[in-house]
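Today's session is about reading a structure prediction critically. Students often jump straight to the picture, but the first step is always the sequence itself: look for stretches that repeat, for charged clusters, for runs of hydrophobic residues. Only then move on to the predicted structure, which in these notes is written as discrete structure tokens rather than atom positions. Here is the chain we will use throughout the hour.
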Amino acid sequence: MQVALDATPLTVPTGGVTRYLVELRRALEAEFPDDRYQFLSDQPVPRRPEWPPHWTTPAPGSFSSKWWLLGLPRTLRQLRMDVFHGTDFSVPYLRACPSVLSLHDLSPWRDAGWHVGADRVRQRTPWLLRLGRASMVLTLSEAIRREAIDRFSLCPDRVVAVPLAADARFASRPRDPAVEPYFLYVGTLEPRKNLPFLVEAWREVWRRHRIPLVLAGRRREDGPVFAEVEGLRLLGPVAEAELPSLYANALAVVYPTLYEGFGLPILEAMQSGAAVLTSRDPAVTEVAGGAAWQGEATDVRAWVDGMSACVTDPEQVAAWREAGLRRAAAFSWKRTARETHAVYEEAARRG
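Below is the predicted structure for this chain, in token form.
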């Protein structure tokens, strides 16, 4: 099978969709070495030193200004691709081969304030779904699968939930005793991650226990801006090689998101042996599987108590760590690759 992957998410250095695309291709090539996978985009995709040499993205050619309408269908025909995977809400306007569309979540439609630059997605994706331009639709959780079916009136057998996993490099390791404990958030700094709320709750914990809060991730243009506050550390984008130890040395990973399609940092934290505190969002609840502390995303008092318990109740923290390790073991990129490949095969069969 020859599969083209939309590489547009790789034009930004970090983020959940970027991580998804890189890990998915690695796993697919490991599980299905006889297939051929090709990145395609109308935008320059910077090469990264850790990528294999064959991970290239051909120049879009003369139709780059009308990529989704003309350039991409023509390229797919020239390369004789069997399936196109639209990894970020889009597939070609004109069918050149069967397509799979990844619908990571419905945040562009849930709250316009969460994605101020997503007008094109809000308008284009429902139209593509209504006209059947995507043979199959991929979500990352059953919660989003059900939401997508209801919102876009999709045929249920056309929508498949395939969960993600933490990469093997996120393996449990002992905490470094030389590192002072800290609370850790990992992810893009954007509106729906609920970070001003997190900082508000943490400041009360800081007054009681003097445990710093570390925010690790790229700030999106519409993301929150924080004044300098004692104990609050903004790391910005963090190299992937640094993340495992950052997770492992945290007192707890805090993720008070308002809405998620999956919540990959939760699994990465669990597999690294960190205790996790997160919100009661349906997709997050599905992923956490009872192995994390969960509280309402707007309840400051609950979050103050939850973070304080990480300081005062080490036995409870140890229990969360053990539960998280067991939960993370239920996910693997091998499983993700196999189930995604089955969706490609179904798309090709329907096509």
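Discussion point for the tutorial: The first strand starts at residue 2 and ends at 6.
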